Amino acid sequence: MDKIRLKNVWNKWCDPIFRRRGHDILVFFFFLVVSAGFWLLQTLDETFETEVVVPIELIDVPEEVVITTPLPEALTAVVKDKGTMLTRYWRDDVKPIQFSFADYDGGTVSGQVRIPQADVMKLLQERLAGSSKVQSVRPDTLEYFYNHGMNTMVPVKITGDVRTDSRYYLYDVTTDPAEVNIFASAAILDTLTAVQTQPLSVAGLKENATFEVGLRPIRGAKIEPERVKVTARVDFYMENTIEIPVISLNFPGDRELRTFPSTVKVMYTVGFQHNKEVTKDKFVSVITYEEILDLQEQGATKIPIRLKSIPEGVDNVRIEPAEVDFLVETFSED
Prior knowledge:
By secondary structure, the chain is of the alpha+beta class. It folds into four domains: about 1-45; about 45-145, RNA Polymerase Alpha Subunit, Chain A, domain 2, CATH 2.170.120; about 150-235, YbbR-like domain (RNA Polymerase Alpha Subunit, Chain A, domain 2), CATH 2.170.120.40; about 240-330, RNA Polymerase Alpha Subunit, Chain A, domain 2, CATH 2.170.120.
């Protein structure tokens, strides 16, 4: 009974109100759309500037010709026209501007071609509506380099900074490929000694790692390939200790050097990969007779131990003891 009474109240008072409001809302939106349409038409009839991206193509390039530095892929033109005309450039892609290689071929083995600004503006205007005016163009100079196949192989030089964790060290860095092919004019090829990678910035390496890195472009040259793989090989440090004798040198036949102790310990760090290559015979501690004479003149009783030879790849070398007592024995000639 309450539901029926509530429904009657709604039909009598609320329904007419919402129907009227619905009608008013529809009328409001209708006039809003009409007003927006008039505003848009009026706005599009005014003059504006917009940027238009136009693709660029170099055509009719002979098979034996290598374009070492190509034209840019596109140019950006600032175009002025009425809004109604500019909308066509937003909806549709502008056809590419095409330059024929034969039109600028000077018959040389290699060269640099700068396309005249007049040629660019003429072809650009042909791609636009007659009422559109080009205000400016970027880039303002279009150029390309070419040759007829002259090339040479040059090594790749790694640039940047590759660091390991403090417990590790970098024992080898290589590129794949180690050399790249450069197509360029004779003037460029004669001065090239290497091609540099883009700067690497790596820190905290704890294991071998490979990075794909681009090569720094060379104006007027084509590099194949344009990217290389840089492999950093990492090794860890290990501590090692060996015992070596103290060797005397240049002593007369009737004299002999004795040291106390006769051997010393050499402690060092070495990479795990090189540990087997480091043997005790590669550490040499030599005391000469001349050094002993100098020490005796000074009244010294100890010899400071120095290594005359240290194997490659060894770091943080310490000697224990750092000094030894010495005695020069003299033998009679009987």
